[in-house]
Design brief:
With 224 residues, the chain is α+β, with helices and mostly antiparallel strands. It has helices spanning 3-13, 22-33, 41-48, 53-65, 90-103, 109-117, 130-133, 156-163, 179-187, 193-199, 207-219; strands spanning 69-74, 77-82, 125-128, 143-149, 172-178, 202-205. It has a 4-stranded mixed sheet with strand order 5-4-3-6. A two-stranded antiparallel sheet has the order 1-2. Helix 2 (22-33) crosses helix 5, helix 5 crosses helix 11 (207-219) and helix 9 (179-187) runs parallel beside helix 11 (207-219). The protein starts with a helix and ends in a 5-residue tail after the last helix.
């Protein structure tokens, strides 16, 4: 085995601070991408390019034992889905979202930092949507973001911070929603910006707050 492969294997086998290896967390990524969807082991292998059936099975078993995923048996097939009934596993999906954000070197983080520096409160979620979320941005694309705040806070300071983005390259366009407003968008029957964010996003900060809202919406009928 060459040095590069040895290093790769070492990283895969090294437990993350979440208690799982990077390779195991990669499996959780497909559930984070579509938390409302059910997956078989075959689906997991196809989406992660993991070849070992045994490895995929053992990883899914570990997630199920931790209560992160649920397993249903249909015939002889195991069907796995996110256990959204409990908020205790939100931390794991926050780890996953953080790793996704860290890999996105194409996102203009300096622009976002300038906006964040103008925000004094730590109690918010900042989420990228649009073409950047899908990795389909062009040189002329705007950077679309949503900021989700507690109902107890005023939108005004956040909206002022977002104004900074209108003079940046790429130009930043953003919306501010309270947590209640975002939740109501998710459970609304009509397609809206909140549902678009849930389907295609990169979370810059506040992943735990985002998942609390998402799980509550899923408990009340949101299915993507």
């Amino acid at each position: 085995m060459d040095t590069k492969k040895q290093l790769s294997k070492k990283v895969d086998n090294n437990p993350h601070k979440s208690g799982f290896t990077k390779k195991q967390l990669d499996i959780l990524r497909i559930f984070a991408k579509e938390p409302w969807r059910q997956f078989t082991i075959t689906d997991v292998k196809q989406n992660t390019k993991i070849k070992s059936h045994h490895y995929a099975y053992e990883a899914l078993k570990a997630f199920t034992e931790k209560g992160i995923l649920k397993e249903d048996i249909k015939g002889k097939t195991g069907i796995y889905s996110v256990n959204y009934e409990s908020d205790n596993n939100i931390e794991y999906f926050s780890f996953v979202e953080h790793s996704i954000k860290e890999e996105r070197k194409d996102i203009p983080s300096s622009n976002l930092k300038q906006i964040q520096d103008k925000i004094k409160s730590p109690f918010y979620s900042m989420i990228i949507g649009g073409s950047y979320a899908e990795k389909k941005q062009k040189p002329t694309s705007d950077l679309d973001i949503a900021i989700i705040i507690p109902a107890s806070e005023s939108k005004k300071s956040y909206e002022i911070a977002l104004k900074e983005g209108e003079l940046m390259i790429p130009e930043v366009h953003g919306f501010v929603f309270t947590q209640e407003e975002f939740y109501l968008m998710l459970i609304n029957k009509e397609y809206n910006y909140g549902k678009e964010i849930a389907r295609k996003h990169v979370i810059i900060c506040g992943a735990e707050s985002y998942y609390k809202i998402l799980f509550e919406a899923m408990r009340n009928g949101f299915k993507g």
